[in-house]
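Side project, low priority. Logging it here so it doesn't get lost.
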Amino acid sequence: MFSSIHHIALIVSDYEKSKAFYTEVLGLEIIQEVYREERQSYKLDLALNGVYSIELFSFPDYKPRASRPEALGLRHLAFAVEDIEAAITRLQLFQVEVEPLRIDEYTGKKFTFFFDPDGLPLELYSI
């Protein structure tokens, strides 16, 4: 029935700050940026390695996330990385705080968490 996940949509509180984070810090590519006057909202389509992945939205009347880490809804967004130490070093160059490395007890793979400008939990997971 399903062939893949098409995209993940995120609502952000500070559009310019989040745009810079996802493009400059995480390195996602801009596919298209649209300002929707009737909604006073931006929509930014982003790709990871050429694959459409994330939509960023700005809305003037967004609602804050209820709590962390166990709020109902999206728990976190995970990025697969080949060299987790290099990915951590890159994030730290941009002053992004990264939690200590952990080992997945079931796979033996390394992983860690960090946060976007709105506090959305993001994960790096070794492949």
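Brief comment: Strands lie at 8-12, 29-36, 41-48, 51-58, 77-81, 102-103, 110-115, 121-126.
Revisit when time allows.
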